[in-house]
Amino acid sequence: MAARRLLLAVDGGNSKTDVAVVAEDGEVLATGRAGPFRPQSTGVAAAVTVVEQALAAARPVATSTRGTAVEQALAAARPEAVVERALTAAHLEVGVEGVLPGVRPGGVGFDHVAAFLAGADLPVEEEALAREFAARGFGADIVVRNDVFALLRAGASGPAGVAVVCGAGINAVGASPTGQVARFPALGRLSGDWGGGEGLGEEALWHAIRAEDGRGPATALAELVTAHFGAATVEQVVLALHFGELDMDRLHELAPGVFAAAEAGDEVAGSLVDRLAEEVVVLAEVCLRRLGLLDTPAQVVLGGGILTAGHRRLTGRLEAAFAIRAPKAELVVASLAPIAGAALSGLDHLGATPAAKARLHAHYDLGTSR
């Protein structure tokens, strides 16, 4: 029997990196997880090393049909043996010392690598990451794209549509049925972006300090800031940030409190939630317009912790705005993990059958992913 082609799917995010080894018939053979993927702060080489770590930590999927060898490796509690035997059972030769486990010596590697990565915001960044994957022996057929494209494929019924992610930050991408792409530099305020937990946290602090010193209207956000960081005044928090005693990255922790304050009727917090809704809508609207999809049925996938949390005010504002500005758009909240989108995109690339994609979709629908 001919060996099944194998793909390596990668979802490299700001908080974690997931990998999945998938056969061309849609069977998920092994999954692994490692730390955050941050090439812009750690460098390209260090970021790709995190993918190696995720693959080295991979375990075979319990439902895999690869047989007794995998079960014996699990019993031995040797992760490297688990990966080795799982991939060997899938007709993939095992690496040797100095070569990535699970990848053939000589640079042959996986039949396809579908890597969807945070920090791959520009074509030049995608190209640099693809070169590093190739240099490490992952394979010769490598596609690197921004991680929001994985969200799009995970949530949409096919490769076309628009995806907006709102977690720590905010970004959007779109793809037309003909393959045209819409995207943004996504470099933060430098490129005109606002939103996500970081944006909400910064604005909450801005309004809180102005409420405290009298320059702005009273708001529950002042109490939110002091209570969350255990400070007597908002000014103490500001000074702690200024002197490096408090990490600026922690401001995103205020986001849930902003939504709670908005739900309780705080006008300032409500204005921030409304502003965020407008940012989400305009990102999607621009993508749809660029792709010529504004007046045709198209799916808009919403993902990220903020957009999937079910905040009532935000959801209501989004639904109302889309009904007016993109009435033919179908809002979809992503139910599959982005790693599933990376794997589905990999199967698309391999020309896999609809049955293979349905098999993979069912695997993640059943919650058997990591």
TrEMBL record:
InterPro entries: ATPase_BadF, ATPase_NBD, Euk-type_GlcNAc_Kinase. The keyword Signal does not apply. Keywords: Kinase, Transferase. One of its GO terms (molecular function) is kinase activity. The keyword Kinase applies. Coiled coil: none annotated. Transmembrane segments: none annotated. Pfam families: BcrAD_BadFG. Residues 10-345 form the ATPase BadF/BadG/BcrA/BcrD type domain. This is Kinase.
